[in-house]
Amino acid sequence: MALKQIDHGTNEYLQMVQLRDMELRRPLGLTFSHDELIKEVNDILIVCMDDDEMLGCAILTHIDIDTVRLRQMAVPLKLHGKGIGASIIGFAENIARDKGYRCITMHARDSAIGFYEKFGYRIVGEQFYEVTLPHHVMEKKLM
Q: Helices H, strands E: what count in the chain?
């Protein structure tokens, strides 16, 4: 299992989009628009690979000088509980720290709140709906 950053527009990026589509969008009857994907060109794209198989992914998007947003984290359901998500979170936090960010924020699906709380993320604010599902903003201060 290898964690790494990838570049927008590469074959690995296309694999990442496919994973996110299968795990995050299709179950909701949604797809990605071209405009959504173009906006990711300056994001930090993170993947977890086992040889040529993509095991998971996440994106870090710059918010401001101190804050980065974790988004589009996806691990296939059949691989949940194997430590892949935990590895991606740790890798993403290290990248954020290395780039000088002091806080990671996210829009977490309510079904994933317990997962993120295990890593020190906390809910801030009221529940809202995004992509048809209940979410909460969560954040973690980076040391």
A: 4, 7
Does an H or E element contain 52, and which?
A: none
The Cα–Cα gap between 41 and 50 comes to 24
Half-sphere exposure (Cβ direction) of 2: Cα atoms closer than 13 Å: 8
- How many angstroms separate the CA atoms of 59 and 47, rounded? 9
pTM of the model: 0.95
Residue bearing tokens 């918010």: 63
Alpha helix (H) residue ranges in 21-67: 34-38
Tell me: the pLDDT tens digits for 88-127?
A: 999 999 999 999 999 999 999 999 999 999 999 999 999 9
